[in-house]
Amino acid sequence: MLSEEDKRLYDLDVLARTIYGEARGEFNRTDGGLGALMAIANVIVNRTKFPQRFGKSISEICLKPHQFSCWNANDANYQMITSVQLGDNHIFDLCWNVAENIYQGKWPDLTHGSDHYYASWLSYTPAWVKGVKPQACIGQHIFFKLHA
């Protein structure tokens, strides 16, 4: 059985890898930057308010099938996010820092409570967006609050 500290570190690790897989390219964009990384973490932390729907822990939320595409075994990012380690590159180290600060509630929610997002560069609009007002547009992602 994992200790509370081990669970916390596992959650942080999975959160950092999810941020890295979902938004690492945003950091160097003028319309994304640090805020884009924070926003992905905000959505994940916001989902903790709905454990029946999304999962009971950060890691469960991130690893739930079909929620964050970077964790799909056939996704181009999967191998990278499962092998990267702290110290390998500055973007992953930054994702870890973002994960830690958002997890601890030290940084604000830039998404205004959003629990979903999608990449604006997709060639289609997801069906779940219909009739839902965006809460924020940060970098190449559009954020939505589907659960109150």
TrEMBL record:
Stored InterPro entries: Cell_wall_hydrolase_SleB, SleB_dom1
This protein's record includes keyword Hydrolase: yes
Gene Ontology molecular function, alphabetical: hydrolase activity
Gene3D superfamilies xrefs: Cell wall hydrolase SleB, domain 1
Keyword annotations from UniProtKB, A to Z: Hydrolase
Cell wall hydrolase SleB domain location: 38-144
Protein name: Cell Wall Hydrolase
Organism field: Caedimonas varicaedens
